[in-house]
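The record is kept unedited without comment:

——
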Amino acid sequence: MKPKLPGLAAGLKDKLIQQALERKLRQAATPPQQATSTASNAGARNAIPEAFYRFHLHPSYQQLRILNDGAARMGLQNPFFKLHEGAASDTTRIDGSTYVNYSSYNYLGLSGDPFVTEAAKAAIDRYGTSVSASRLVSGERPIHRELELGIAQLYEVDDAITFVSGHATNVSTIGHLFGPRDLVLHDELIHNSVLQGIQLSGARRLPFPHNDWNALDGLLTEHRHEFERVLIVLEGIYSMDGDYPDLPRFVEIKRRHRCFLMVDEAHSLGVMGARGHGIREHFGLAGSEVDIWMGTLSKTLAGCGGYIAGESALVEHLKFLAPGFLYSVGMPPAVAAASLAALQRLQKVPERVKDLQERGRSFLKQAQEAGINTGTSEGLAVVPAIVGSSLKATRLSAQLFEHGINVQPILYPAVPEKSARLRFFISCTHTEAQIGQTIKTLAALI
């Protein structure tokens, strides 16, 4: 049985689907008072509606099922959860066939790099597959500190801390450091993990227009005095759009208004700067200019998890009190070793960074010349092809797959319906021939 297709909400104008959705949601959300009254008439005064203790009747699951069924009736295939049969870089194998691949964060080809692979194997031989405890109690291993000190050295800051999940890094860090008397201002396109962290913290949340430092300045002028701690959160490269903020402007604003500044470098480490040291290197800034450097290990650094880098007080605070670190098992040795090796390789192979940047610019230039809407992308590893509806994005993804090209659609609600897109992740290992053929095929299909 084929898996159902998630996320194709807006754009499916079928009235029958909408009517069914409304009916099922009304049934699932029957107020307890009404349900009790109905049960009373049947002689069961204390009955609880089935929707309140059955997962298959949960309103959001009902919505998902209705939308998936509607997509299936329109002949749409599921573009998600494809099984990749090996390491994925510029190409990948799916169901026995090889595809040009644009759905991997393996920007510098370090996942699968022999040096990185051997480091992970050696860590297993020495430490086993798990540290089997929180690092605070008995899960600490030398490889953890080597990785953290390596990250701190790259940012030229005091120290760093690694978490077992990139998403949880933002959730736990923001959720722990800030509270109800504080304010968090964030770019309107910020990642879900930041939003979840703010919600956990209880701080007031104010978004500002994408990359608009002037709007941020206005919000702080109006509201800074109402709060104790204030945090500004940006991304190094925005993963949906492939653009980046004017970081020096934001640094100046955070100084003037006496705020904290946090930069999520999930997609900019290894991608920006002459050596791939990220947005800090791109703008020539000192590591101390940003209060909280955050990043993930799952992209350029070929592992899994996240990190926070900054001053000693920040890192020590998180190590002893942040729930996402304190109550979580330590990172598996093989993962820490792989990321450490990838960090070392990053500093030894700057030509890969140069190749990546050239391939990204080439993809962007050819796409724009072909009339493809690439939005605000700067061509640094992430280039969207904005097509205007979830339905069209899904169909284009399927058609490209038939032509040997694997690229994922990004659909509502991940982006606004009119901004549904295909999202191309570029690797340093992509060739000009692959890029040229991809653009030619996409332009013909659009």
User: Anything to note?
Assistant: Residues 350-369 form the longest helix (20 residues). The CA atoms of residues 191 and 368 lie 26 Å apart. The first strand starts at residue 91 and ends at 94. The radius of gyration is 24 Å.
